[in-house]
Structure formats: C-alpha cells, structure tokens
Amino acid sequence: MKTKEIAILLGIPKELRHELQEVLDSLVADGTIGVSKKGKYMKPDNVALVGTFESTSRGFGFVVVDGQDDDIFVKASDTKDAFYHDKVKVVITAQKNGDRRREGKIIEILDHEVKTLVGTYQKNKNFGFVVPDNQKIGCDIFVSKEHEIGAVTGSKVVVLEYSNINIYYLNGTSTEKASKYLACDPKVIFSEWKKLNSIGDDVRFIKCFINSNGKEEINESTATYIVGDKATLELTISSDIKKYYEKHGEEPLLSSLKKTFTEYSDFCTDYKLIIE
Q1: Which of 22, 94, 117, 215 has the most C-beta neighbours closer than 10 Å?
Q2: Please, which residues bridge with residue 118 across strands?
Q3: Rounded Cα gap, residues 268 and 128, in angstroms
C-alpha cells in the first residue's frame, strides 16, 4: 500500500501524515519494510533484489545486480556479515540522488561463492595465517599447524576456506554446540553465533585479528612479517550486545562466544573480547 492508503486504513488525519511518512521512512532505512519504485510499502522479501556482494577492506561494500548498471552501496553496519562475493538479498533503503548511489541493506545471505583463495603464508611456531592476494578480502585466514602441510613463510598457497566449525549457543540454562560448514571468516562465524543465540543485527562485528609478538623485517624493496610464538585473538563487537544480557545472562552468553572463537582459533594462546 502507498502512504495515503495506509493513513486511511489507520485513520490518520491529513495534518499528521507527515509523521506517518517519517515512521515509514525509518522502517525502510533499517530494512524492516521495503518500498517499490511506485511507492508501495510491503514486506522486504517482496521488493528484495538478488546480487553479488563486493566487499572492501574498510567494512562497507556494494551489491552488484545482474542487468542493472548501478550497484548498491551497503554500509558496514548493514552487510549482515556477508563475505566477499556472497550471493545476497538486499533491500533499497535510499534511492539514487544526483551523484550519490542507491543505498541498501542485506537481509539474507543465499550462498557463499568463494570456496578457496590464494595468498601468502606466514608461519609461526604453533600456527600460521594466510594473507589473501585479493585485497578486497579484509581479513587473514588462520591455519593450524596440523593443516599447514609443509608451507613456510612466504609460500604462495591455496586455502580451502570452508570448514566444519562448532558454534556454541544457549539453550535454556545449558550451553550446546552445533557444527556448521562455514567460511573460515570471523565475520561469518560471529553471524552464525548471533543467529543461534537469537541476537539481532543491531549487534555488529567490528574487527577481529591476531595480535602477536612478531616483527617486520625490511630490506631494500621488500617487507616481511615474521610471526612470533605468542598470539592473542582480539575480537571487537558493538556495545549493543549488552541489551541481551538480561535475557541470556552476561557470563553464559559471553562464555559461549569465547568458546566458539577459542575453539576456532585453537592455535592462539589467548583471547580478548573488546566491546565498544
């Protein structure tokens, strides 16, 4: 229905319709409802577009839709933790205005296209990681020692980027686990943890990296990072997580998150959660 039809249905007088419009605009902006080109409001699935997500190292990205010349800008907070080249559903939250692109919000991840990636291996005593050649993939891939199959620092490697990963979640007063075949990407793992724990998209993944005691060696034209023998997995998420403490309990909820990530990165010697 259009704004006028909704106003009539709800019995809202003409002088207050601007307030209704503000509410509708807000619901479209957060992806709760969608709006067609003709101005009709409906469920987001009914107006969602399917496209390919192009990520950037800065968190935001773009959705490319086949047959459409203009891509759709997606803010970092609206990516739903999509990975590079994921097939996604996106709803438009702001139409093109002059030089500004259309903006959208991803509401569903349909498929993970990237199954392997190529990168440079950095070896550590107990683990290593792969720096992807594709700079649009904004995270390193962790590799446990048992899976390095002879790779050394500087080796060019192909990484199988999917694996069965245990996600821990709360079921009443107990903590259970579910094995999921997922991309070995902290954003994807965090997204699955949220889903199983009924955590909303208001809780955002901000960053995740290994803080090690390594060092950078520079000579003439090249720089090489030598990983140390200690490493802390530092996970940063938004403070919106605190809204869910009352429902789940702070300690069991954060404990399930810690267990998920420490098991995924069992080659790290420590874990640190940062809430900001």
Answers
A1: 117
A2: 158
A3: 10
User: Any idea where the domains of the chain sit in the sequence?
Assistant: 1-47, 49-113, 162-275
Task: Give the position of tokens 């899976």.
Answer: 147
Name the CATH architecture for the domain at 49-113.
Beta Barrel (2.40)
To the question of pTM greater than 0.85 for the whole model, the response is: no
In the chain, beta strands by DSSP E:
34-35, 41-42, 49-55, 61-64, 72-74, 86-94, 102-112, 116-123, 127-132, 141-144, 156-160, 162-171, 174-183, 205-212, 215-219, 222-226, 231-237, 270-275
DSSP symbols for 82-133: PPTTEEEEEEEEE--BTTBPEEEEEEEEEEE---EEEEEEEE-SSEEEEEES
pLDDT one-digit tens code per residue, 54-88: 988 788 899 999 988 889 999 988 888 788 888 99
Please name the residue that has the structure tokens 């993939």. 137
Q: Which of 39, 85, 103, 50 is nearest to 188 (CA)?
A: 85
d(C-alpha 256, C-alpha 247), whole Å: 14
